[in-house]
């Protein structure tokens, strides 16, 4: 776990081109994809004397073969930096589109030698996202496109065996607390704090809450700061420090300090939080949360985050990865998208194309080296969960966490049997 | 505890308003924790399949307009250092456990400061979960001399107070204030220096410090204004 989390910390300051990231991603996943392709198409590959072509440029016309590469989606509505640069300055910028997909998208397969366009009806049924490493079986037709017969991806990685736990032990997962200047859910937050610290309820309820062993906050603890242009105020150059309100951060600090006296807390950053925007998001700086950081039970962690509690492996993100993948497809079944990232063996394939990320040089930290037991994604619209079975008896509980500020729900996962349920906090005022 | 208080008040005739907290499983099979005013208690109970607990959450003279009144009462007053301050009082249904949350006596330096009591399922025992010993106060008196030496070094190590929370042999949760060495770099200002100074000399320098801070702020503002004036206003 420590090695996996260590990979997510950005240690070097310099920036470079992103081509390296794609190259190491291909290198890292190519062997796994080929192994899975061997298992899936083994009989076809041997009987027809179909060989795996090492370079896409070596594909010959009319010969059935199997090639491995990175998917690139050419989409009309995808934000393109060249369009931004060449467009007219006086036209107002168009609002960002919620979906990038359209009917006339083209799919290319690329590797270090070249690229080839993929055609075929089977592609329409697949979830097509830039950055996925996949193997395709097919042949080149006269137009120079590659007709696809079948597709294969890397598949689930190895999962360490789940430990046998006899007592009930719960982990609390929260996301989207969204503390802001005019905070409407302050009462719900206080109820949640009292519930977790055991101040609420009778002895039966307190026995239940005493079994909560840890709390993981999956991002968006602070509200998005919207700059409101005040017409009456004279515009000043530079930064107007009087418009900054430090109250939300100190409220968050007090809240965490109170919970930390009872529970170990892991704080992950999210899209709205005061950390770097590109993935992997680095932990909060300790100076921002001085009171909370004094507690030994408080941990500031990265987004995404690997965690092992009593042998059960948790892995989660604050939602940006799945939100970005959802822009590439029409359907909104987020559980299916989360399951698909496990099949692709990559958490965030759309980086760095549409999702900002750090240009790693030697390794891609988003490649999943092992299957977690619990995979949680924060800041989704509503709570949803399912259990996914992998081909080698892997078993994953996927949980979509709702935003606490909107729904007042937290999720409790039982380590004994991976059951999970929500607890909602509300009042009739 | 609060239910006893309510019973005693109703005898005198002035029944204050009570807000109840219901924990249970609703008819849609969802665990929920809900705050209801006393009037709506019965009808809300019908919506629940199983009720795990009902108890009084808070009491006030009149029905509060919205939830913010309940939140604000929980904020701990920080300036009042002279009195014993009981800020959170939560009732439980087992009447034999004494529940006082967050007691903070500060001027009594000779006694142990007990800061957080948490109720346990064992009704007869009192559980002390946080205690700070008075040795902390002594350390603070000695530390200004150390600090003055450290001010000469712009970068190096400084003593930081950290809270360590662990379970001791008897199963009690203990939180201990310890001092640890932490390295810091030049240019970082140490807010704890001013904080500790205020505690040692309570009245005089606290006023002085606040005046200084105000004075500094004014000075900053004037220089900032002049700099912005250079760029002009749009």
Describe the structure.
Chain B: It is found in: Nucleus. Chain B: Its main location: nucleus. Chain B: Keywords: DNA replication, Nucleus. The complex is a heterodimer of chains A (429) and B (234). Chain A has eleven helices and 16 strands. Chain A has 429 residues and is an alpha/beta fold. In chain A, the strands form three sheets. Chain A has a six-stranded mixed beta sheet. A five-stranded mixed barrel of chain A has the order 1-2-3-5-4. The two termini of chain A are 44 Å apart. Chain B has six helices and nine strands; from the N terminus they run H-E-E-H-E-H-E-E-E-E-H-E-E-H-H. In chain B, a hairpin with a 4-residue loop joins strand 1 (17-26) and strand 2 (31-37). The longest helix of chain B has 29 residues, at 203-231. Chain B starts with a helix and ends with a helix. Residues 77-153 and 188-222 of chain B have low confidence and may be disordered. Chains A and B meet through helix 5, helix 6 and strand 16 of A and strand 2, strand 3, helix 3, strand 8 and helix 6 of B.
């Amino acid at each position: 776990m420590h090695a996996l989390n260590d990979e997510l910390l950005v240690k070097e300051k310099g920036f470079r081109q992103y081509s390296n990231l794609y190259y190491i991603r291909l290198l890292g996943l190519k062997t796994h994809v080929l192994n899975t392709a061997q298992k899936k198409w083994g009989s076809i590959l041997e009987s027809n004397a179909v060989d795996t072509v090492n370079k896409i440029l070596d594909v010959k016309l009319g010969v059935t073969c199997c090639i491995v590469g990175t998917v690139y989606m050419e989409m009309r509505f995808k934000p393109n930096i060249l369009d931004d640069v060449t467009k007219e300055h006086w036209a107002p910028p168009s609002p960002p589109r919620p979906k990038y997909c359209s009917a006339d998208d083209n799919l290319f397969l690329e590797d270090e030698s070249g690229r080839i366009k993929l055609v075929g009806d089977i592609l329409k049924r697949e979830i097509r996202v830039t950055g996925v490493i996949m193997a395709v079986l097919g042949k080149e037709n006269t137009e120079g496109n590659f007709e696809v017969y079948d597709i294969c991806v890397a598949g689930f990685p190895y999962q360490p065996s789940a430990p046998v736990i006899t007592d009930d032990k719960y982990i609390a997962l929260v996301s989207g607390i969204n503390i802001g200047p005019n905070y409407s859910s302050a009462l719900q937050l206080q109820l949640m704090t009292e519930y977790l610290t055991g101040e609420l309820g009778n002895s039966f309820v307190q026995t239940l809450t005493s079994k909560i062993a840890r709390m993981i906050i999956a991002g968006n603890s602070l509200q998005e700061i919207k700059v409101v242009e005040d017409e009456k105020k004279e515009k000043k150059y530079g930064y107007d420090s009087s418009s900054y309100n430090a109250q939300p951060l100190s409220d968050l600090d007090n809240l965490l300090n109170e919970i930390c006296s009872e529970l170990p807390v892991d704080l992950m950053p999210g899209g709205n939080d005061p950390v770097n925007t590109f993935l992997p998001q680095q932990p909060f700086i300790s100076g921002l949360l001085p009171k909370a950081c004094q507690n030994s039970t408080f941990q500031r962690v990265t987004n995404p985050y690997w965690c092992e509690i009593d042998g059960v492996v948790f892995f989660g993100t604050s939602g940006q990865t799945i939100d970005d993948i959802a822009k590439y497809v029409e359907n909104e079944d987020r559980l299916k998208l989360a399951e698909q990232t496990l099949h692709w063996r990559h958490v965030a394939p759309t980086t760095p194309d549409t999702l900002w990320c750090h240009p790693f040089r030697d390794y891609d930290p988003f490649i999943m080296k092992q299957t977690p037991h619990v995979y949680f994604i924060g800041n989704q619209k509503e709570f949803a969960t399912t259990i996914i079975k992998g081909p080698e008896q892997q078993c994953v509980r996927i949980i979509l966490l709702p935003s606490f500020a909107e729904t007042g729900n937290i999720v409790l996962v039982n380590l004994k049997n991976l059951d999970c349920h929500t607890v909602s906090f509300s009042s009739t005022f | 505890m609060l239910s006893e208080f309510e019973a005693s008040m109703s005898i005198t005739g002035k029944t204050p308003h009570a807000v109840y907290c219901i924990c249970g499983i609703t008819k849609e099979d969802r665990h929920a924790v809900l705050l209801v005013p006393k009037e709506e208690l019965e009808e809300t109970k019908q919506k629940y399949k199983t009720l795990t607990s009902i108890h009084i959450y808070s009491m006030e003279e009149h029905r509060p307009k919205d939830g913010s009144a309940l939140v604000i009462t929980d904020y701990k007053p920080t300036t009042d250092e002279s009195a014993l301050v009981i800020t959170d009082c939560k009732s439980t249904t087992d009447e034999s456990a004494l529940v006082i949350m967050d007691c903070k006596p500060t001027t009594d330096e000779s006694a142990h400061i007990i800061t957080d009591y948490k109720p346990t399922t064992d009704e007869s025992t009192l559980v002390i979960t946080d205690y700070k010993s008075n040795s902390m106060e002594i350390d603070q008196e000695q530390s200004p001399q150390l600090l003055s030496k450290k001010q000469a070094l712009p970068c190096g190590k400084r003593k930081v107070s950290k809270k360590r929370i662990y379970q001791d042999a008897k199963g009690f949760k203990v939180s201990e204030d310890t001092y640890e060495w932490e390295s810091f770099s030049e240019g970082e200002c140490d807010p704890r220096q001013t904080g500790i100074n205020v505690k040692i000399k309570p009245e005089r320098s606290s006023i002085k410090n606040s005046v200084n801070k105000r004075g500094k702020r004014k000075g900053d503002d004037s220089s900032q204004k002049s700099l912005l004036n250079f760029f002009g206003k749009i």
